[in-house]
Design a protein that fits this description.
By secondary structure, the protein is an alpha/beta fold. The chain is 45% helix and 21% strand. The two termini are 31 Å apart.
Length: 120
């Protein structure tokens, strides 16, 4: 497992960066953030204490289904599913589809690193 690097930038800055990369004006460095949030507040909502505990539980127990995870965490399946889909969009979890419609969550990173510029 490795570290996922996350950055904070305004929507306009993210768009400008993406366009510069598409034009070939900017070549991203290997250590640049792979995931971007528009604010520290949005980052904190997705990776709240409760959600970080959820990621730790998934990494430690390797549940075979969302139902098993719901039982072990005491969270409702519907809320758990919604939370995990949000975290999947950011790459914090992988949701593996299995037999009979089972979804198995996996945590692909050992840690998440936040890069926050104080100049913008």
């Amino acid at each position: 497992m490795s570290t996922l690097k996350v950055g904070i930038a305004s929507y306009e800055d993210m768009r400008a960066r993406t366009m510069a990369i598409a034009r070939g004006d900017l070549k991203p460095n290997a250590d640049d953030p792979k995931v971007w949030f528009t604010s520290t507040e949005s980052f904190a909502r997705v990776l709240s204490n409760r959600n970080r505990a959820l990621l730790a539980t998934i990494a430690a127990t390797h549940p075979v289904s969302l139902q098993e995870l719901a039982v072990s965490t005491g969270r409702k399946s519907s809320n758990l599913s919604r939370t995990l889909k949000t975290m999947e969009r950011y790459g914090f979890v992988n949701l593996q589809r299995g037999e009979r419609g089972r979804i198995r969550p996996e945590v692909p990173y050992q840690s998440i690193s936040l890069e926050l510029s104080l100049n913008g």
